[in-house]
Amino acid sequence: MLAYSPSTASSTASAAAGPAIPLAPVLSAASFRRAAEVHASPARTVLDAGAYRLVTSGRVAIALALRELGVQAGDTVLVPAYHSPSMIPPVLWRGATPVFYRVTADAGVDLEDLAARIGPDTRAVMVTHYFGFPQDLAPIRALCDARGIALVEDCAHAFIGEHGGRPLGSWGDYAIASSMKFLPIYEGGALVSNRHDLKNVTLRSAGAGFEAKVALNSVEKGFAYGRLPTLRAALWLPLRAKSALWGLLKRGRKVPAPALAPASSDSSFDFDPRWLDKRSSLFSRTLLKASSPARIQALRRRNYQRLDEALRGLPGLRALHPQLPDGACPWVYPLLVDEPEALFQRLKARGVPLTRFAYPLWQGVDDTTCPNAGMLSRRVLALPCHQELREDELDWIIAAVRKEASA
């Protein structure tokens, strides 16, 4: 099996540098506002694409999709050269070999290269909707049908959104998604299919410890970023007692306690097959049901467009995409930067929350594999545009980026 050592791919604000601004959604009173409050139109999620199972992460969903497709040792799976490293371990877990196909300079699928890499052992191809921007999957679906291979639609960046009048996730034999990129929850993913009933995918609870950890971590993360102050005051003493008790229990153990949540919840790229038959927590499932996709989409689009208007034309950077398509719900706001290392370090020092998707790429994938993947991995810096950002936080991010980009 190939080895991979993840490095830090994101930065959050430090108290000394600037205000603490969440890179991902955090729980707040605003999390439960309905769509009418932002005058939003109806929005569809990947769950509208077909039958679904709610699991703990997108990578677990990938592993389940590959298992359901019968991928095994000796098979190859086509994977975009521009990818999250968490996409690869499920392929290796099945004993298959990942084969990397090229992408274009704007992260589109290089269809000619993809077709050329399909061989007699190819069982499936994975295609990613990067940053919430839909790929044109009609020709890819036609290619897969003509060559007799399966399509796994990666909606990890696109839990909400549609294209061509259909919800994202509708084109694949299976689709996978990551709800924790779009909701203020500690874990969450989905396996979806409009071609299979998923009756063979049975899930069970991961236990009381997991359920409690997810709920507490989701609430405490909101507290850490200044949300839910009344609830924080009410729970101050019980949470202090919980922390003290947990510290005593850990000090008394001679061996580390088994993980109560999957590695994906703590930004690791590892894959643990013990989570394959575990369903998403009750807390996450409840919040998913209570959330408004229309509100989330409307606010993310508004924040994205505000960032775009404020940062467009600054020296040395530009939006990866010239415009936000109708029906898209962005995960983040991706900037293509001429001198990414210098700007990344300056923004990190100021405490600007940002992430570098696919940085680094999987071991052995470099410019010789795909020049555009290497370029995108190095040069794309992404800013948050999620629905829980406050006006003052977005103002501060814009001011900080404008200042550092002009330095």
Structural features, described:
- Helices cover 34% and strands 14% of the residues.
- It is built from 11 helices and 14 strands.
- The chain has helices at 58-68, 88-93, 111-117, 138-147, 208-224, 229-252, 282-290, 293-311, 340-350, 371-379, 391-405, and strands at 10-11, 51-55, 76-80, 97-101, 122-128, 150-155, 162-163, 166-167, 174-177, 189-193, 317-319, 332-337, 354-355, 380-384.
- It has a 7-stranded mixed β-sheet, with helices on both faces. Strands 11-12-14 form a 3-stranded antiparallel β-sheet. It has a two-stranded antiparallel sheet with strand order 1-13.
- It is globular and about 60 Å long.
**Low-confidence regions:** 1-16
Described by strand count, sense and barrel closure, the largest sheet is: 7 strands, mixed
Approximate helicity band: 25-40%
In CATH's first tier, which class of the largest domain applies? Answer: Alpha Beta
Q: Rg, please?
A: 21 Å
Number of strands: 14
Could you report the average pLDDT, rounded to the nearest whole number? 90
Class inferred from helices and paired strands: alpha/beta
The largest beta-sheet arranges its strands as: 2-10-9-6-5-3-4
- Stated plainly, the CATH topology of the largest domain is called Aspartate Aminotransferase, domain 2
Distance from first to last alpha carbon: 45 Å
Domain tally:
3
Q: Would you list the SSEs in sequence order as H and E?
A: EEHEHEHEHEEEEEHHHHEEHEHEH
Number of helices: 11
CATH architecture of the largest domain: 3-Layer(aba) Sandwich
Percent strand? 5-15%
- Full CATH superfamily name of the largest domain: Type I PLP-dependent aspartate aminotransferase-like (Major domain)
